[in-house]
């Protein structure tokens, strides 16, 4: 079973600034707002099932995804 120490860190960017009610769906991520009007989330995704869950949330919320990339392995 994969653990948080096995997680990879991802950066996810959306058009617009997401509000607190929407950010509840991304509780394990840090949030930043760019001057270009994007919300930037960075955080761990443990495995493919968790990745699918995040992508499903993005789809269900109707967010305009501008970037989704792996940054690094989380320090253990």
Describe what this molecule looks like in 3D.
With 76 residues, this protein is an alpha+beta fold. It has a single domain (4-73), classed as Alpha-Beta Plaits (2-Layer Sandwich), CATH 3.30.70.100. 24% of the residues lie in helices and 38% in strands. It has two helices and four strands. The protein has helices at 20-23, 48-61, and strands at residues 8-15, 30-33, 38-45, 65-73. It has a four-stranded antiparallel beta sheet, with helices on one face. Strand 2 (30-33) and strand 3 form a beta hairpin. The longest helix has 14 residues, at 48-61. The mean pLDDT is 88.
What sort of overall outline do the alpha carbons produce when their principal axes are compared? Answer: globular
Number of structurally distinct domains: 1
Round the Cα radius of gyration to an integer and report it: 12 Å
> Average pLDDT across residues?
88
CATH class descriptor name: Alpha Beta
Order of helices and strands: EHEEHE
**Which CATH-level-2 architecture?**
2-Layer Sandwich
List segments where confidence is low: pLDDT < 50 over at least 5 consecutive residues.
Answer: none
CATH topology: Alpha-Beta Plaits
Secondary structure: elements and pairs:
Elements: E1 8-15, H1 20-23, E2 30-33, E3 38-45, H2 48-61, E4 65-73
Looking at this protein, list some descriptive labels.
alpha+beta; four-stranded antiparallel beta sheet; 76 residues
Q: Would you kindly provide a brief summary of this structure?
A:
The protein is α+β, with helices and mostly antiparallel strands and 76 residues long. It has a single domain, classed as Alpha-Beta Plaits.
């Amino acid at each position: 079973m994969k653990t948080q120490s096995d997680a990879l860190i991802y950066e996810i960017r959306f058009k617009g600034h997401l509000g607190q009610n929407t950010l509840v769906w991304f509780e394990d991520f840090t949030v930043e707002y760019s001057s270009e009007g994007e919300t930037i989330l960075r955080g761990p995704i443990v495995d493919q099932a968790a990745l699918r869950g995040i992508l499903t949330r993005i789809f269900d919320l109707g967010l305009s995804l501008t970037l989704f990339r792996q940054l690094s392995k989380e320090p253990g």
